[in-house]
Specification:
By secondary structure, the chain is of the alpha/beta class. It folds into two domains: 120 residues, Class I glutamine amidotransferase (GATase) domain (Rossmann fold, 3-Layer(aba) Sandwich); 85 residues, no CATH class. Helices cover 31% and strands 25% of the residues. A four-stranded parallel β-sheet has the order 4-1-5-6, sandwiched between helices. The longest helix is centred in the middle third of the chain and has 18 residues. It is globular.
Length: 225
């Protein structure tokens, strides 16, 4: 007799194919999920569910009743529709917006539903928190392909953070001194951008980094709700 499986069920949103990947795999491939994200979640005991892009809102409503959370992964996608082509689309933008809006509604109704955004995924979450029709909130920074320590905010911020409040001193020191986070991106979001788009009151910045030209950008952030 099989026992019950209490491991969390986590969805991963597909990403539109990047130009370099399409050159390698062909024009008939339009979306993918990087195996790294699947292995990352499975290594922590989660079961993974793929979530398709370019679906109606009702599809995401149904999925989000069945999973315990969703990971919005990184990718190389144009956020501005005008830059897309027939074979290089950005369906993940609208799909992630549906997911963000539904998660907001669920949490307001007292049904806890977590979202995690990495790289492009985190940028999409910030974009969708703007009440308006902005196409992009990122700025270009010096492209990086390296690991860096993170510059954590002050102790008061960390102690009140849902994400980092349980980190012990040893881990905090390691994150601050060792090459903790890998950076492979050419776009950044800064603290000033949060203010410019009137979303600073929604988010708490936990850590920053600087590119090779000294531009400070946000590397870890969490929603206040």
């Amino acid at each position: 007799m099989c026992g019950k499986d209490y491991s969390p069920l986590i969805g991963i949103l597909c990403m539109d194919i990047a130009q370099e990947l399409q050159r390698k795999y062909g024009d008939d491939i339009h979306s993918y999920i990087s195996a790294a994200y699947v292995k990352y979640l499975e290594s922590m005991g989660a079961r993974v569910v793929p979530i398709w892009i370019n679906q109606k809102r009702t599809y995401y409503e149904g999925i989000m009743k069945k999973v315990n959370g969703i990971l919005l992964p990184g990718g190389a996608v144009f956020l501005d529709d005008s830059k897309c082509t027939k074979n290089l689309r950005n369906d993940c933008v609208q799909s992630s917006k549906f997911i963000y809006e539904i998660a907001e509604e669920m949490n307001k109704d007292g049904k806890y539903f977590p979202l995690w955004g990495t790289c492009l995924g985190y940028q999409l979450m910030l974009l969708h928190s703007i009440k308006g029709n902005s196409n992009d909130i990122r700025i270009e920074c010096k492209k990086m392909e390296c690991s860096l320590p993170i510059n954590l905010e002050n102790s008061y911020v960390l102690q009140n953070s849902k994400l980092l409040k349980d980190c012990n001193d040893e881990l905090v020191t390691a994150m601050s001194q060792l090459p903790f986070g890998y950076h492979n991106h050419r776009y950044c979001i800064t603290k000033q951008i949060l203010g410019d788009f009137n979303i600073a009151d929604q988010w708490t910045v936990l850590a920053t980094n600087k590119d090779s030209e000294g531009l400070e950008f946000i590397s870890v952030i969490e929603h206040k709700k």
